[in-house]
Write a structure and sequence with these properties.
This is Heavy metal transport/detoxification protein. The protein is of the alpha+beta class. It has two helices and four strands; from the N terminus they run E-H-E-E-H-E. The protein has one domain: Alpha-Beta Plaits (2-Layer Sandwich), CATH 3.30.70. A four-stranded antiparallel β-sheet has the order 2-3-1-4. Strand 2 and strand 3 form a beta hairpin.
Length: 69
């Protein structure tokens, strides 16, 4: 069953940031779509329900951005 996750992510400021976050998260298992919005510091992720939230957060962090809980 599809699940939508919205994360607050600090450090995104431009289209390059948007693309880096989207690419990093999109390659994870179970991720169906990713939409990063730098102006709102949000990343909206749609998964098939099998994605690991910790892995998603780690992928974003590895790109140099901060996930705010």
């Amino acid at each position: 069953m599809a699940e939508t996750i919205t994360l607050k992510v600090e450090g995104m400021s431009c289209n390059h940031c948007k693309m880096a976050v989207e690419k990093a998260v999109q390659k994870l298992a179970g991720v169906q779509s990713v939409e990063a919005t730098p102006s709102e510091n949000l990343v909206k992720i749609t998964t098939d329900g099998s994605s690991d939230l910790a892995a998603i957060k780690e992928a974003i962090t590895e790109e140099g951005y901060t996930v705010v809980d």
